[in-house]
Amino acid sequence: MISQRKSTSSHSAEINNNGHSYGSSSPLPSRKLRYGNGSMNSGTPSHNNPMQQSPCNSFLLGGMDKRRRGAYHPRQRTLWYRIFVSTPARAGATAFIILFLSWRYAIAPTMHSIYEWGLYLSSDGSQSTQYNSKSTFLSVADDSKLKKEILKPLKELKENERLLRDSIDALRKPNVKTGEKRREAIRKIVPQWSSRNGEVKVAKEANKVEHVTKAVQASNEKTNENNTINASKATAIKENEIPAQVQTIITEQKLALLQEIQKQLDEPPSSSASIRTLHTSKLDMKNSPNSCPNDGFTLPKDLVTTLVIQCTLDRIWLLAETCNRWTDPIVLVVYLPFETAKDTVQGTKAIESIANLMANCSQMTVIPHVHIDDKNQGNGGMSSYPVNVMRNKGLGAVKTSHILIMDVDLIPSADLNDVIKDNLVDQISSNNGKVPTNAIVVPAFERKVDPPCSNIESCKGYLQKDPRFLPTLFNDMKECVRDKKCIVFQSDNNWEGHHTTKTQKWLKSEWYDEPSKTDEQKTRTIRQIKCFDSLRYEPYVVLPWCPSAPSTKPQPLAPYYDERFYGYGKNKIQHISHLRYRGVPFYVLPRSFVVHHPHPESNVKQVWNDRKKNKLHGEMDRLYAKYIDELEDEYSDVKGVVPECD
């Protein structure tokens, strides 16, 4: 050991300051060469001096004594890597710390904020929401004053929304005073039209009431004098609770309905009477009697759309909401089976319900249709329900420039008639002041309920309990669709019926086509339907009807419905197909819509679905296939027919 130390000491003395040896055959590299840094501060070897070791040997830096790896080895990893993830234990500890800090200062506060906002938005906004102080989430706004300042704008919006909805409910609530104000306004604007249902001056009320009462009694005595007296007494009791002017209107309407029903009973149509079909459509448009004015219209001031509806007596209650929303004229054709019209008691009840509806809907004209089941198929005549005959009967009473033919269970949005007029004005302006022969599609939706109502009384309760049950305007419909309370009409069982409307684009307010490159004025036009996704497309459309030019014999601008179609199925799509083969272009109306109100399944649809006992389904399918062949032959030379999409 003594000799070894001496050898080492002598060898160390032979090393100069630059690390070179003198007189030695195997020089030892300097500390700078061995470790890449450091300096010669003494002659003592670095491996025996712990103060002179490389920083990489520190355990904190994850290093290792480089003497174990050789005299020279450069660093291969970054500093952060050697500190945090050089070993599995370090990596695990680092991950734990990162996750803890993320949860403590990022994830937990964010989740708690979302939770607080959700509780507030789900509340009515009238009271501040209380939160559990022991919640596992961490609040980012523990200061109550800060919370109040943050939530104050939302509370104000909630309160304004509540006040607005209360105002809408008050306006929509039907009452006699509102009806009187509406009638008074209509009477000032169009006095001749407003008096069509027998409105009279207050000064002549007493004489007219006496005259009408005598006429009703005399007419009823022809059928059954005793029943008439009882019905008159019951009516008199009710009339004591109604203002005198409303009594006059109801009484005159009853008389007019009774006279029309009696006329149809005395002169029932014969089975051999001619009906309107495709083959007679041109002659029908020229020769059929209509109510279009001979003086024409002043455009665009006189652009008005009439709602044409047909229904049975058990669906008439749906018209109350339609009357609240639609202020333009309405023509209603009511189906009366021959047995009901002939029976005094049932006939009196029918007249009573129709007259009461008309008293609260001054813009409505009601036409009864007494039907004889000449096909003898039973079901109260539902198998032969003359749907297209009734539609054409309603068209014969239209006096306006445009029509919208709908079913009674579809309720218009509150602004539908105004939006229709605005877009008609735009189309006329872009067509050199002339009314274009276009079909404007009104998007149709359906209000879903689970479970569905099983009877009329439960169906009536939806709107009675919640006036906002049916969407009123565009934003209401967006919200209803978003909440999955509304869907595209019949999309769950007949997707082809309304798919071509592209309702998803409509809900995103994609209502207009891009202006063409040649259009220097960049005219905005509503979206045109370039092709039909399916030839089973059957939308509800606004069509031109009465011509604007004066004429001694005005002719309708749109075809009638084919009266060979009856019952349920194919009766509406045949008219859409007729328009398509005539080369009529189709456009989609922006912003407004119609929505289907739930109701029990009709007898007509039950007959349609029961293929084993009834032939209606098969007969209409075969007739429609034949009808398409007739259209292809009739309009083989027409250009511009909307094609089917590829």
Q: In words, what does this structure look like?
A:
The protein is an alpha/beta fold and 646 residues long. The protein is built from 22 helices and 13 strands. The protein has helices spanning 2-13, 31-35, 79-84, 88-122, 144-172, 176-189, 191-194, 205-220, 225-239, 244-266, 281-287, 319-325, 338-342, 344-359, 387-395, 416-429, 456-465, 474-482, 503-507, 573-581, 603-609, 616-634, and strands at 305-312, 330-337, 364-371, 402-407, 410-412, 439-442, 444-447, 486-488, 512-513, 525-526, 540-544, 586-588, 594-596. The strands form 3 sheets. A 7-stranded mixed beta sheet has the order 3-2-1-4-11-6-12, with helices on both faces. Strands 5-13-7-8 form a 4-stranded mixed beta sheet. Helix 10 packs across helix 14 and helix 20 runs parallel beside helix 22 (616-634). The longest helix is centred in the N-terminal third of the chain and has 35 residues, at 88-122.
How many helix segments? Answer: 22
Strand count: 13
* Gyration radius from CA atoms, angstroms: 42 Å
Biggest sheet, spatial arrangement of strands: 3-2-1-4-11-6-12
Outline the biggest β-sheet: 7 strands, mixed
**What separation lies between the terminal Cα atoms?**
101 Å
Quote the beta fraction. 5-15%
Stretches with pLDDT under 50, minimum 5 residues:
1-48, 50-57, 68-73, 124-142, 196-216, 218-240
Helical proportion, percent range: 40-55%
What's the average pLDDT?
A: 76
SS-based structural class? alpha/beta
Topology:
Blueprint: H1 2-13, H2 31-35, H3 79-84, H4 88-122, H5 144-172, H6 176-189, H7 191-194, H8 205-220, H9 225-239, H10 244-266, H11 281-287, E1 305-312, H12 319-325, E2 330-337, H13 338-342, H14 344-359, E3 364-371, H15 387-395, E4 402-407, E5 410-412, H16 416-429, E6 439-442, E7 444-447, H17 456-465, H18 474-482, E8 486-488, H19 503-507, E9 512-513, E10 525-526, E11 540-544, H20 573-581, E12 586-588, E13 594-596, H21 603-609, H22 616-634
Parallel strand pairs: 1-2, 1-4, 2-3, 6-12, 7-13
Antiparallel strand pairs: 4-11, 5-13, 6-11, 7-8, 9-10
Helix pairs in contact: 8-10, 10-14, 20-22
